[in-house]
Specification:
Blueprint lengths: L4 E4 L7 H12 L4 E3 L6 E5 L3 H11 L9 E2 L6 H4 E2 L3 H10 L4 E7 L4 E5 L4 H10 L3 E2 L14 H6 L7 E4 L10 E4 L6 E4 L5 H9 L1 E7 L5 H15 L5 E7 L10 H8 L15 H5 L3 E4 L2 H10 L7 E3 L6 H5 L1 H7 L18 H21 L1
Parallel strand pairs: 1-9, 2-9, 4-7, 6-10, 12-13, 12-14, 14-15
Antiparallel strand pairs: 2-3, 3-8, 4-8, 5-6, 6-7, 10-11
Length: 369
């Protein structure tokens, strides 16, 4: 049995050549010990069956039990998992990169565990490999996960091909594992993230208003709904707004400021922002002002189709009859005149009508959420 090649890598200034060497060994079917922020792990090419079988043998793990995969880009989630829920994206954007493993429905298998480690060495190695890697803890069966390199290499010297010693780890506690394959999320293993932190993120609902420039209609809607929620002493809903074609950092329009001031609301600190895929993926409900905004949202994130609604649908008598069902199954009503037209540059009367339409719809939204 040949000994493992061991290299020391500075976590703050990692040697790129050594990380590329590690990646090449993984791509060729080898096994490499690498650090994460939690514990040291054994990296293997998740698409190399011989490497996975060898890893299973070392770990004394049943061959039909898959390893969790480590990735370096959130975009890879949709390539490796199916039916990625809002809950999944909330947890991902809150805790990744970080000590959270989520179990989702797989594309070619019943389930897949995914994690993005908060460690530059690990992320660089994954990036150099160019695809997801299997990354279980670097310990033999029955032994605790290694919090330091000496514990990792003690029983694995000669069993793996390459090992990176980067010294002490940031956390030294295993990741928390959350199973999202069922309707009710289950915490499978408590680790560096507490159950309270997980449940707090899951429980909070998120509503996103979208208009064109995020200086008028969506600002009014965001401010009004926030006030309604405050009046009802609700802190379990997060409300935000964005625009589809905006210059980030613009103030709310003067007309929006004036009309909200009458309601006792100040938006003097508002700064416009452009919608992003992240905003859309973690929103439970996306309320747009016009159909053109709906189209822009779906071009950016087609997967949110069942969560996008015209705000005025909530004020429409026909559509409102079955609104709860519509939110559940994503159906849309086909009524005319459901756009809330941009009042910018129009008369004060037009602004008043726009404000009235938004407020009427929000009174219904407030009752339903």
């Amino acid at each position: 049995m040949s000994s493992t090649k061991i290299v020391r890598v500075d976590p703050l200034k990692p040697d790129e050549k050594l990380l590329k060497e590690a990646a090449e060994i993984i791509k060729s079917g080898g096994l490499v010990i690498i650090p994460t922020e939690t514990v040291y792990g054994i990296a293997a090419d998740s698409f190399n069956q011989k490497a996975i079988e060898r890893l299973s043998e070392i770990k004394k793990r049943p061959k039909d039990k898959p390893f969790a995969l480590a990735i370096d880009k959130i975009e890879e989630v949709g390539e490796l998992a199916s039916e990625v829920s809002v809950t999944a994206y909330k947890l991902i954007y809150k805790f990744w990169p970080g000590p959270l493993t989520i179990i989702l429905k797989g594309i070619n298998q019943p389930s897949v565990g995914l994690r993005m480690p908060d460690n530059q060495i690990a992320l660089k190695v994954i990036s150099e490999v160019g695809r997801a890697i299997a990354l279980p803890s670097a310990n033999l069966a029955g032994l605790p996960a290694p919090e330091n390199f000496s514990s990792a290499i003690k029983d694995l010297n000669g069993l793996v091909d390459f090992a990176i010693d980067s010294g002490a780890l940031k956390i030294g506690v295993e990741s928390t594992i959350v199973d999202l394959t069922a309707k009710i999320p289950q915490i499978v293993r408590l680790g560096a993230i507490s159950g309270e932190e997980i449940n707090k993120v899951i429980a909070k609902k998120s509503i996103l208003f979208v208009c064109t420039g995020n200086t008028c209609r969506s600002v009014i809607a965001e401010a009004l709904l926030k006030k309604m929620l405050r009046d009802n002493k609700r802190d379990d809903v997060e409300v935000s707004s964005a625009g589809v074609t905006t210059i980030s950092g613009a103030s709310a329009s003067q007309s929006a400021k004036d009309i909200l001031a009458r309601e006792g609301i100040s938006v003097s600190n508002h700064l416009s922002r452009e919608i992003t895929r992240e905003m859309l993926q973690k929103a439970d409900l996306i309320l747009v002002m016009e159909r053109v905004h709906e189209s822009a949202v779906l071009r950016l994130a087609p997967e949110v189709k069942n969560r996008v609604f015209l705000l005025k649908e909530f004020a429409n008598p026909v559509g409102n009859n079955n609104l709860v069902a519509k939110i559940s199954n994503g159906a849309k009503i086909d009524e005319n005149n459901l756009d809330i037209t941009d009042p910018m540059g129009k008369s004060s009367d037009f602004y008043e009508k726009t404000f009235g339409s938004i407020k009427e719809a929000l009174e219904k939204v407030n009752k339903l959420i």
